[in-house]
Automatic annotation (TrEMBL):
CDD domains: Aldose_epim
Co-factor requirement: Ca(2+)
Alphabetical UniProt keywords: Calcium
Stored InterPro entries: Aldose_1/G6P_1-epimerase, Gal_mutarotase_sf_dom, GH-type_carb-bd
Stated name of the protein: Aldose 1-epimerase
Amino acid sequence: MDKEIVLSLGNQQVQIDAGELVGYAIAGHEFIHQKGSPGWRNADTEMFPIIGPTDAANFRVTTPKGKAVQDQHGLLRELDYECLEQTSKKAVFKKRYTANSVVKNAKFPHKSSEAELSWPYNFEFTKTFLLSDQGLQISFTVHGEEGMPFMLGYHPAFKLRTTEASIETGSKNWTITKVMSVGSRALHVPNCERILLKDEKSLEIRTKGFGNFMLWTEVPNMVCIEPITFYPYAVAQEKLHQGFTVFNGKAKEYSVFLHPLQN
């Protein structure tokens, strides 16, 4: 199966590169930040089993099975996706991890002192893309050991075309300048499952299971709108475990729906 997968329906086209959403266009209008453009080297990624930095905690995160060596946003993004299914409108990918397996840290040695990462639990992580007439759904299914703690965040980056672009939740509105001013900590949007990105063409982002968002960018041409289960800067890094969800043996389901709007 080819590395790059293209899904299409009507005037919608989705490009997926090794499980990464690198394109979502409506009638040729691209919503996703393009690799190589200023701002971020990726287009999307997942943050699991932790969200946020760990350097101030010596890259150690507390779990019921002891300390785990984790770099920023966890080790899932260091693993490769396997494509399980592909049709014209759907693609399914999976990552598998065996407890205590050593994973090379791509941030070492330039951005981290830890060459290897590990996690003391088995897990499987499934990512599904599904196109419908209304838009694109990205779903995540987590299978893990009973008692496994985790956080989950989805980290997509969206392309901006105007200096007037803004983000709304219904009761609040943020300019891109405001998001930039918060810096690397990212702007927290608590108790929220729907956000509207207003630009040349607007995009509604609806979620299930996450409950929160983070907004981050350092440049005016893109913004990351990130559904998260926990805002990591609510606690000191050595207390990240206070934000864990605990796995009860049943699969956990999360979803993000990208709904283009007519401006």
